[in-house]
Amino acid sequence: VNIRHAVSISDLKRLAKRKLPSFIFDMIEGGVEDEFGVARNRDALKRHALLPRMLADINERDQSTSLFGRDYASPFGISPTGPGPIYHRQADVILADVAKANDIPFILSGTSGASLERIAARSSEKHAWYQVYAAKDHAITADVVRRAQDAGYETLVATVDTPVTPKRERHLRNRITTPLRLTPHMIRKMGREAFLHPSWMLQYLRLGMPMLENWQPYVRVGASSDEVAAFFRSQSPSCQTWRDMEMLRRGWSGKLVIKGILHPNDAVQATELGIDGLIVSNHGGKVLDRAPAPIEMLPRIKDAVGDRATVMMDGGIRRGSDVVVARALGAQFVFVGRATLYGVAAAGQEGAERAVAILREEIDLILGTIGCRSFDQITSDVLS
Ligand SMILES: Cc1cc2nc3c(=O)[nH]c(=O)nc-3n(C[C@H](O)[C@H](O)[C@H](O)COP(=O)(O)O)c2cc1C
């Protein structure tokens, strides 16, 4: 398949798989342990059927959605997905640009390649949000938050679902390290694969581990990208508690979103801290293999939180119909992680654009086929 002929997110996944060496593709695709969680996220979405209404006047359809008082062109945004440059050298910048051009939000990862300042300078406070990963050294976390404020970010996302290093078995088998080094084992294991993915290989051999620019200020001046990545690894994961969240809320005057909530009681506790929103998420099945799918917990969380905070969701979204189902079950907005990453890995800017366009077109068609003129009309009534 050529990128222009990719008609679904799975087509983009196939193209990404072809482009990347398998141990890099595994970093996107892999879950934890038996990878039940990754499958469960899709299965739980698939279980819901949409019940169409006929003969509605759907000639003009509008999928724009408001979130935190702003109107976005579509009801989905881009989740944070680690250091983009591992998958495509410009991935962080491309995802930020594509989000802005399509008027949707993009969450820059706390482990991005591009610095939060660089992304803020080319995006806007509406389209770029920043995700913070707490460091073991609290002074670093506080400084990152200050930098995000100084750079003009309006929305800060605290990911709280990874208190320990998850057992990602594909990584362990592939002997993936941070910093990511092409060890003799990997090169031997790749064998002919190295020749099947020459563009990625040559680039990596030439440029090496991408610089984690956000962490650069905390390492000695002139430190290599390997040193910075090793420093990041020594600081993360850092175990956080509700007290840290309280402090974050006190210190951040913009919108504060907590990502990685699954228990309704945690959702309520977060709401009581005065957070603005939460993303119901199991990190795309990458942390706890036996975690429920976010879509399974969404209705209970929405019931528990009500309108006190904005409830969003991510995990397993590959189709426009998934976005509609999530809305029907109580999500104001959804995010995609792998969908746009497949696109950018497969074909850079064009691939990321394609991923967004595919989802947008599918949402439009689903609205038409179920008899809804606007996304705001979607309620639990659209479920069978
Ligand atoms: C390769 C990869 C890297 C990720 N890195 C981060 C990260 O840096 N921060 C974070 O909060 N979540 C991270 N996640 C989780 C995503 O933000 C998101 O929750 C998940 O991908 C959603 O599931 P989906 O991929 O099925 O859409 C990552 C996910 C993937 C696939």
Verbal overview:
By secondary structure, the protein is α/β, with parallel strands linked by helices. Helix content is 45%, strand content 11%. It has 16 helices and ten strands. The strands form two sheets. Strands 3-10-9-8-7-6-5-4 form an eight-stranded parallel sheet. A two-stranded antiparallel ribbon has the order 1-2. Helix 6 links the parallel strand 5 and strand 6 (155-159). Helix 15 packs across helix 16 (338-370). The two termini are 35 Å apart. The model has no long low-confidence stretch (mean pLDDT 96). Residues 27-28, 41, 79-82, 109-111, 131, 159, 259, 281, 283-284, 286, 314-317, 336-339 line the site of flavin mononucleotide.
Chain-wise SSE layout:
Blueprint: H1 9-19, H2 22-29, H3 36-46, E1 65-67, E2 70-72, E3 76-78, H4 91-101, E4 106-108, H5 116-122, E5 128-132, H6 138-150, E6 155-159, H7 169-174, H8 184-190, H9 193-196, H10 198-207, H11 225-235, H12 242-251, E7 255-261, H13 264-272, E8 277-280, H14 294-305, E9 310-314, H15 320-328, E10 333-336, H16 338-370
Parallel strand pairs: 3-10, 4-5, 5-6, 6-7, 7-8, 8-9, 9-10
Antiparallel strand pairs: 1-2
Short key terms for the protein model shown above:
384 residues, eight-stranded parallel beta sheet, 10 strands, 11% strand, globular, binds flavin mononucleotide
Count helical runs: 16
The main β sheet shows up as: 8 strands, parallel
Globally, the shape reads globular
Radius of gyration: 20 Å
Q: Please give the order of strands in the largest beta sheet.
A: 3-10-9-8-7-6-5-4
Distance between the termini: 35 Å
Strand content: 5-15%
Query: What's the β-strand tally?
Result: 10
Structural class: alpha/beta
Bound ligands, each once: flavin mononucleotide
Poorly predicted parts: none
Average predicted confidence as pLDDT:
96
